[in-house]
Amino acid sequence: MGAPDQRRNGGGSRRYRRSPSPRRGSRGHYRSSPRDYHRLPIIIILQINLFFLSVGHFYPMDAEDFDDAENSGDAQKQFRIDKVTGPDEYSAIVNNNYYTNMLAKKSFEWGLKFIDIIEKEDKDCIKKLLHKLDINKKDLDSFKNAVNTYLPFDEKKNILLQDDSFLALRDWDESDDLRPLLLHYHPLRIYSAKILKQADAVLAMFLSDENLSADTIKNTYHFYENITTHDSSLSSCLYGIMACKINDLDKATQYFMDSAFLDINDTHSNTKDGLHMANLAGNSMYFIYGFAGVRVKEDGLHINPIVPKGVDSYSFKIYFKGSLLEIKIGKDTTVTLLEGDLEYVYLNGEKQQTKTENS
Predict the structure, then answer these.
(1) In degrees, to the nearest 5, what angle opens at C-alpha 90 toward C-alphas 86 and 93?
(2) Which of 30, 56, 102, 335 is the right S-S partner for 81, CB 3.0 to 4.6 Å?
(3) Is 109 a catalytic residue?
(4) Rounded CA separation 345/327 (Å)
(5) What whole-number distance in Å separates Cα of residue 80 and Cα of residue 59?
(6) Mean pLDDT, 10 residues at a time, the chain of 359 residues
(7) How big is the CA angle at 16 (ends 13 and 20), to the nearest 5 degrees?
(8) Do 108 and 49 meet the contact criterion of CB atoms below 8 Å apart?
């Protein structure tokens, strides 16, 4: 299990964003691998869930006072995580960061899902595993109740809220235009304003948009894009990937160029200290998750491709459920089965048979 990220960003932070990463990796591996793989990830996920229970708490939305909150059972409450810092480094120590809470919710859901899968196959196995991890019935009940995790949302704007109080912050004075902010302005001045260093709620949408409407995704994207400085090298690739999602080809192409040429043009004035390796990884993600629109879902591999301006075609290979696929995208999209026996993928929502090299 990943430990909380305690790096200091001026005013300090309390970050849990790395802890759920193995959980998401386990979920992705489960979805994209043969079905003999699920006993190892459950050990990781359940320990992450215990960690989340230790830093969060249950609280009813409609409690009028402390006594009301104390007297209601956990099943009638929502799970919350207070005093936390999410991915954005210009926001610190907030209540209910959307990204963090969303990852916690997904972790609880998938922990229970893995328990159910293994229990159906081997009851003794799951009993021994829970005993080994010292997880009792009370813990399991808490996992079930914590699936009801509070996710901040503004109904009027139809956007995901980065945290409980984000909209109450002051607007950033546009005359304070020195960049990056943290090298020119006091952290407390930054933390008290609606200004972002990098994707936060937008990153949450990239990781999990399955239950969000197209309007919510678009509104959330535009709201936070307008107040993001991109002082982080990790920002442009994520905003570009989501620009592909909302089918804004101009922004998608521009963000890709910003990300691809970040070190070549030394746009952050620090390439002398070394290449931005995470950004380079973001460029490969850009083509796969952005332009190609690849998503791994419960029912299979989904591809929703677009072709960026100035590019005739592009291709890549991907390994999915024991099969190696070559995906070529241009005027048409072809999915060729190089190895394995995968019969179909989903192209723009429609089931499509894979082709062999000789077909």
Answers:
(1) 50
(2) 56
(3) no
(4) 11
(5) 7
(6) 44 57 55 59 91 95 58 78 96 96 96 91 90 94 97 98 97 94 96 97 95 97 98 95 96 94 94 94 93 94 93 94 95 95 95 86
(7) 160
(8) yes
Distance (Å, rounded) from C-alpha 137 to C-alpha 258?
A: 51
Chain position carrying tokens 């109450």: 168
* pLDDT tens digits, one per residue of 264-319: 999 999 999 999 999 999 999 999 999 999 999 989 999 999 998 889 999 999 99
89, 119, 339, 350: which is the annotated catalytic residue?
Answer: 89
Superfamily of domain 294-356: Maltose phosphorylase, domain 3 (2.60.420.10)
pLDDT at res. 7:
42
Domain layout of the chain by residue ranges: 21-232, 294-356
* pLDDT at residue 4, as a whole number: 47
Token pair belonging to 169:
């912050």
Per-residue confidence (pLDDT) for residue 9, from 0 to 100: 47
Architecture of domain 21-232: Alpha/alpha barrel (1.50)
Q: Is the dihedral of CA 111, 113, 118, 124 positive or negative?
A: positive
User: What confidence score (pLDDT) does residue 357 get?
Assistant: 78
Distance CA 280, CA 261 (A): 10
Q: How many whole angstroms separate alpha carbon 90 and alpha carbon 9?
A: 8
Only one residue has tokens 């899902």, namely 113
- Residue 297: CB atoms within 10 Å: 10
DSSP for 221-252, please give it: HHHHHTTB---STTHHHHHHHHHHHTT-HHHH
The pLDDT value given to residue 3: 44
Would the CATH topology of 21-232 be identical to that of 294-356? no
Is the distance from CB of 214 to CB of 222 less than 8 angstroms? no
